[in-house]
Amino acid sequence: MAMKKTGSCQFGMSNNNSDHFILVFHGAEVFDTGDASTFIRLLNPEKSIVAGVMARTAAGESGLEVIYDGRRPSEILSQYGAHEAVLVHRAKNSVSAHRFGSIIHSHLEERGLIFIEPGTGQILVYGSVEMSCIRWLKEKTGYIIVNGERHKDNPPGMRRIGGCLPGEPVFVNGIIIGHATNEEVVISLQDGAIEAVSGILIKEHGIEKLMRSGCPDIQKAWCKSGHIRLSFPKKGDNQRKRGKIAVIDHKAMACYDCFGFDICGILAIGDDTTSICGHIGCSRGIPVLGITDGDIDGIVPEGYAPGSVVLLAVNERDDELGREIVKMVPEYQVIWNEWVHEIISKLGDRVRIVHHEYGFIQNEQ
């Protein structure tokens, strides 16, 4: 860690002219645990920016005055100097924290990084930063200052995913490709296919889903492990009875892109896609019709808006059934309950209802 002794720290100063003090929050846990609220009160930033889909959901439920930015944390941080913007993220453990900070820093070129990690009570520092800023943060938070550890380079044609907990899901570009069996997962790209090297039990169906979008560059792909949120969503009641239907096919993290003012519900294809879309839509009052086949990984606590229905495919995969139902989604506006009943009626004994929320009347014709 290289600390500069010259220059002035802008932290804690009144907001004027071009001076900036930005907090960049990543991950739902910083909002669900109250960390974000605490740091906004203690540090009084000029702006609080949120990065990440589930962080956006948790931030919206928190009621805090924040700005959502759809870019990655490193892309946001790169717009500011190391003394102008601080990253806040609650990691699973110290190993995960250091790896996360190191990966973010690796995308910032020569810029330093200050990373507040409330789970371990540390301020991790990477590269060159202002000493006065670090001291000020230590004084305000009571946290200890730690040199951030650099993550190992990936071997050629391979990708390391560190800080894992055995049993938790492993994601590549938002799709679960398996479950960790060790603290470090290593995957490789062989003949256009992703394979396990160590530390992971591969989920073949997940690999199939991932490869549908083309073979990813595993050196640059978004990889993570663990559940994406631990808290249940808050329920909203602002459901539109009539509107258009959005379709999310195994890419749940894209559901915010479809939340237009004219959307009355979401057709979600896939077990985890259904639970994520249901979770995100819950506080917004947007119901889902989920198409599942029992292959759920439980990456978020389930919660659904009024009018939601989850169907289980009896003797076929959700992928195949989902593609068939997509053809039944009209481009014009519909009444949500009527459309859902129509779909269930057409599918007959090929599906069974495994969950429904109040607001959906089973015997409605």
Strand and helix layout:
Elements: E1 2-4, E2 22-26, H1 29-32, H2 35-43, E3 47-51, H3 53-62, E4 67-68, H4 73-77, E5 85-89, H5 94-106, E6 113-117, E7 122-126, E8 128-130, H6 131-141, E9 144-147, E10 158-161, E11 169-172, E12 175-180, E13 185-190, E14 193-198, E15 200-202, H7 204-212, E16 223-225, E17 242-249, E18 263-269, H8 271-282, E19 288-292, E20 309-313, H9 318-326, E21 334-335, H10 336-347, E22 351-356
Parallel strand pairs: 1-8, 2-3, 2-5, 3-4, 5-6, 7-9, 17-18, 18-19, 19-20
Antiparallel strand pairs: 6-7, 10-13, 11-12, 11-16, 12-15, 13-14, 17-21, 20-22
Would you mind describing this structure in some detail?
The structure is a single chain. This protein has 10 helices and 22 strands. The longest helix has 13 residues. The N terminus is likely disordered. With 365 residues, the protein is of the alpha/beta class. The strands form 5 sheets. It has a 7-stranded mixed β-sheet, sandwiched between helices. Strands 21-17-18-19-20-22 form a 6-stranded mixed β-sheet. The protein folds into 3 domains: 146 residues, Rossmann fold; 68 residues, no CATH class; 115 residues, Rossmann fold (3-Layer(aba) Sandwich), CATH 3.40.50. α5 links the parallel β5 and β6.
Question: What keywords describe this structure?
Answer:
365 residues; 22 strands; Rossmann fold; 7-stranded mixed beta sheet; 6-stranded mixed beta sheet; alpha/beta; 26% helix; disordered N terminus; 3 domains; 10 helices; 28% strand
Structure summary:
The chain is α/β, with parallel strands linked by helices.
